[in-house]
Amino acid sequence: MVRPPVAVNYVYGLFTPECWGVFFEQWDVFNAGCLKLLLSRGISIAIVVLSSILKVPQILNILPNRSNHGLAISMFVLEVIG
To answer: Residue 5's Cα: distance from chain center in Å?
Structure first.
């Protein structure tokens, strides 16, 4: 039974120990339960990372000015609504 190193922690939480075994030991890459879980976790991580990246332009605008004057109101409204 091949297990990843403990530091990897099942590739940052994408795989459960059971799904790791299904994908990389049994080579059943079309297992519906594990595939749904992997897709769900992958999309969740992508949403968090990409939404954080969207805030970088606003932060770069605030830091040199030391003021929130001139920020895009559309970005603020989308953040509050979303």
So the answer is: 21
Q: List the domain boundaries for the chain.
A: 6-81
pLDDT tens-place string over residues 1-48 = 555 555 456 666 788 888 888 888 899 989 999 999 999 999 998 998
Q: Is 27 helix (H, G, I), strand (E, B) or coil?
A: coil
25 close to 1: Cβ distance less than 8 angstroms: yes
Q: What is the pTM for the complete model shown? A: 0.64
CA distance 82 to 67: 24
pLDDT of 40 reads 94
* Integer CA distances (angstroms), 11 to 41, 47, 69, in order: 11, 17, 41
Please say whether the beta carbons of 4 and 19 come within 8 A: no
